[in-house]
Amino acid sequence: MSGASSCRALLVGAASVLPLLLAGCNSGSGGTPTKVGGSTIRAEGACDLKGVQAPLRRTLIFVDAKALRKAADAVTFAEQNKAFRDLVLSISDPAVALPAGTSAAREQITIAVVPADGSAAQTTFVGCIPGLSSQEMAAAQQKEGGVGSMFSSGTARELEDQASNFRTQLIGGMVAAGALAADKPGAQSGSVDAAPFLAGLKASKGMFEGDDRVQRLVLVSDLSGLDLPSGDAEAVRRSGVEAGRKAATDLPQVDLHVVLPAGRSAAGKDFFESYWLAQGGRLLSYGPDKIGNASPAPERLWHFSAKAAYPSGDELADVRIGDDGKGKLTASWLTLLGTPSYPIPMTGSISCSGDDCEIRSDRGGFAQAWSPQPGGEPEFGNEMPFGGMRNFAFRITGDKLSGEATDEGVYIGADKGRQGIAVNGRAK
């Protein structure tokens, strides 16, 4: 799917956009929670609306059954699970998440509970956040004749009503999650290999596979009781890669947040950064009560099948480019598809003119993500993808990707004048 074919001409004017939004959001998002398929509550009216772009990211919140306390109604749930309720609202409440940029208008949110026995997660809520982006709202106001006309038409009030109804459904989904809480709350314990929550995440792979959208995972669990390796940062990170390879959850290049209970130490962050990187996840935050370092959803998205011109022969690769609409890359990865694979997060700038785009790295380090000693002086070595190269420059021309990874600290083979590896691809 290329950005050229799927990410343009998104707003057709207030006369059609806003009525579609308001009518669509009425479906399945009224004041009474609608249960479909057991205990799953659905509020999907804003998920697929004509005249506006469907969001290119979805968020899945996996909560450990042992991180919840039993609750049969909304009042009890709020009393017993305040931190989880506040977390979900910060990601999903239209009045909070959209102004803060934590989530995108109409982004799909899923809540799923991972049972204490490590079996596949049980979904309790699926819905899309009703609302308009700031750009869509501005376009709508202009079409309607300005801010005064916008508010006098009642459109803003209708959006508020839809948000209130969605929130009711969302709270219903959280209460349904509370009903699935373990009889005895507590931390994960024992070895990482045997942790039920991590096993349950792997057993739930079907929930985030086979979807062209970017996936964002929020994992809510107390991991402080796990037996994690000790020693210096290099040894810990190498252990994380080894454990991640063994776990083989094979995440589809996701942004990932781990939310711990209040007061828990984030001492395991080094381990889990490499643990999830080895499986295709970029750990953006690891700490108590909330997600941090939230990256924006892409407004344009490209997928390429590519080849990297290694001296020993071409290496197959997948490249995903996400444009945040403000000149920055988001949800962007280059993955070498060997055995084992090497997924590399990409950060930098993107500048487009029509279907042609220029992409350049920033100081994010690129392949240094695989360094066992991050920070400080860079490390280079054949065991790292691209030898640890820190820079890239690519160009998208229609359905083609071309460019190279480079580093002034590296030369290729015996040619000391060659400091780059070419990468060329074509849109999937």
UniProtKB/TrEMBL annotation:
- Give the residue range of the signal peptide: 1-23
Keywords, ordered alphabetically: Signal
Q: Is the keyword Signal in the record?
A: yes
Query: What is the designated name of this protein?
Result: Lipoprotein
